[in-house]
Amino acid sequence: MAKPDAATPRERYRAQVRTEIKEHAWEQIATAGASALSLNAIAKQMGVSGPALYRYFAGRDELITELIRDAYRSLADTLRTAAAEGADLSGLAHVLRGWALEDPQRYFLLYGTPVPGYHAPDDTTAISSEIMATLLTACAALIQDAPDAPFAAHLADHRDWVGAHPAPPAALHLAMTFWTRMHGVLSLELAGHFTGMRFDPEQLFVAELESLLRRSA
Amino acid sequence: MAKPDAATPRERYRAQVRTEIKEHAWEQIATAGASALSLNAIAKQMGVSGPALYRYFAGRDELITELIRDAYRSLADTLRTAAAEGADLSGLAHVLRGWALEDPQRYFLLYGTPVPGYHAPDDTTAISSEIMATLLTACAALIQDAPDAPFAAHLADHRDWVGAHPAPPAALHLAMTFWTRMHGVLSLELAGHFTGMRFDPEQLFVAELESLLRRSA
DNA sequence: TGTACATCAGTGAACGCGCGTTCACTGATGTAC
DNA sequence: TGTACATCAGTGAACGCGCGTTCACTGATGTAC
Fold first, then answer.
1. A147 touches chain B (CB under 8 A)
2. Mean pLDDT within B146-174
3. What is the pLDDT of residue A4?
4. What is the pLDDT of residue B55?
5. Which helix (H) or strand (E) holds A7?
6. Alpha-carbon Rg for chain B in angstroms
7. Residues contacting residue A107 through CB under 8 Å, at least 6 positions apart
8. CA–CA dist A31, A34 (Å, integer)
9. Do A149 and B207 touch (CB under 8 A)?
């Protein structure tokens, strides 16, 4: 009886322990930031000796790389699913915000302070442009026939980042602007830069979102 | 002969060594990020034993705190000086961008990923609102009598962060938007998120800046 | 169904490292008479 | 101007810590006949 994709018990066990390790890693990142992530600390938390983890990850770097990959995947899937269920650009914005608030340090692992010298593996940039494609499709749906601003033209001349997406220049511009504006509000909010001031960050987020939609109409 | 503010030679020496320590600290941060900053490494770089630095800083935390303070001061002074020399909001934007590009890790020390649990000392928030005041003045100069958007009204209801600044609601809104939009572009640019894509980040920055000025006219 | 063997998860000891920080000290620099 | 004393910068040894990572090993789990 040939079971096509059946995992052996050992394989299932391995996969399960790997996820358990990652869960503890995320907890630790949420508590003390990514730079404080330690294999030994995770092992202790799991009630297991330090070297045991080397059965599951080649080392600290591989673990972090995989966490980054997972985070990108999670965001890409969350957005793609929402889009498939009919969310427009505005809907995607709120999905993005929800995903970020869910675990701020996970957001910062992707879009926060870079570690000088570290270079993300290739496949994460693939997921990253999958995200851009989702946004881009939602943007294209909003563009009727807006006049192309100079920067939109410039973007259209350098559209390597969109792959083969057939979006008009104005949509490229809108997607780019969407990304930077949402990130601008979100990252300052998550970093706590609005806490002293008493206004509601969500209202700022919505105001920025509306400024985008107004422009594209 | 009472010299009012004359520093003794020893005081001058102390001040000089303190600055030298900080310079090496910045070098180290630029090279490996703030989380990798180490007193012993600085000492070694200065050709001096580790404990020697404790004559100048109570410990690692005090050094970092002072670096943050200095960075805020530097940004506040840079903007204030530019404003005093006649720079308008657009001018301030380019000054801000220049300051950020000069030392990305310094920018991230202020506006990048927060370390969970760390709380900035009170005086840095004072400098931070000094920065906001400079921006706000430049914004107020641009506002003729724009209709107040809902969020501007909300901001005006919670204007704790502006101190006693007599700016109209629309100017508050503009300042806030200026901050988040410029940060959105800058932080993604400095973190290298545009490197794969081939367009020119400065053109995006300028496009965002123009979208602001257009709105305020 | 039972035995013989291979696979592999996890252990404990060990290595070398760099960290922040303390302490008692030496020796140079400044101060007071 | 010269001597006596206080101040203080910097040293070297030491403490305890946690880190990533390697290695030879035990013992349980799965596989083949």
1. no
2. 89
3. 41
4. 98
5. none
6. 20
7. A99, A100, A186, A187, A190
8. 9
9. yes
